[in-house]
Amino acid sequence: MDTTITSGRLRLAAHVSRPSKPAGDPPPGLVLCHGFPTDPGGAAALAQTYPELADHLAADSGWVVLTFNFRGAGTSEGDFSLGAWLDDLRAAVDHLISSESVSGVWLAGSSTGGALAICEAAEDERVRGVACLAAPATFADWAEEPETLLAHARAVGVISDPAHPRDLLGWTRELIEIEPLAVVAKIGPRPLLIVHGSDDETVPLDAARLLVDAAGEGAELRVVTSAGHRLRHDPRVVAILLGWLEQMAAAEA
Fold it and tell me: Which residue from 221, 209, 216, 211 is spatially nearest to 190, judged by alpha carbons?
């Protein structure tokens, strides 16, 4: 079911998948986060693939799955900043808790979405666990060349307002201050699954190892042989994620 989430004054496009056979009464809930688009105009395409994945996860796991478009992506209002995307994720957690009957909330995210899921869980005890696919450990490389990132964000479509950002220094500062590696240890002993492709050319495998080492208790690393960056399209990764959801539900039973 398509719906909307309110984040501040903005409306974000979202999709809720409800299982025909729930994994509990009430069932657990998952917020599924997309990554940063890479191809020109790619922001619009994000709305097309994640609802399908959410439907698949809900049908096979029995979970309620909420996926949404961060501001600037798909048909969501607004323009990208890393801090605002983190606010959007908090709004998605709020929405799932307030609008659906779920036993608890877990997060799963790809790339930038996975990194932000770590940051959200680190500060939000309502989150029971996190699964990350190809997540970076830091956004420092973006902060080193903010003008390049800004041009890319315009090209892919997550920034449409020519005057955004009005405070370039503040916009850039968020890329330094929001650092998964610095906060990931706060998640434990809650479960953290980090899945990474051995051949990822966008986010190196070392990022996953750094996150797992820093996380300590409760963290698990799964390296997928010969896989690249776009793990959500790999059946092996979907199977890993479904297995993790089954473990989470069993632990709650």
Answer: 216
d(CA 183, CA 198): 24
Over residues 213-227, the mean pLDDT reads: 95
> What distances in angstroms separate CA 7 from CA 4, 46, 91, one per listed residue?
10, 18, 5
How many Å apart are CA 221 and CA 206, to the nearest integer? 11
- The alpha-helical segments, DSSP class H, found in 72-179 are 82-99, 112-123, 140-144, 146-156, 168-177
H or E segment at 222? strand 219-224
The first and second tokens of residue 40, run together, are 């020109």
Q: Judge whether residue 47 has pLDDT over 70.
A: no
Question: What six digits make up the tokens of 143?
Answer: 């902060």
The residue written with tokens 């479960």 in the block is 191
* Tally of residues, the chain: 253
What does DSSP assign to residue 163?
T
3-state secondary structure of 143: helix
26 preceded by a cis bond (ω within 30 of 0)? yes
The answer to whether 131 and 241 are in contact (CB under 8 A) is yes
Q: Is the pTM of this model over 0.90?
A: yes
Residues 6 or more apart whose Cβ sits within 8 Å of residue 242 = 57, 60, 61
Q: Rounded to 5 degrees, what are φ and ψ at 22?
A: -60, 150
Six-digit token string for 77: 């209002």
pLDDT, residue 130, reads: 98
> Domains in the chain, please, with CATH?
2-252 (3.40.50.1820)
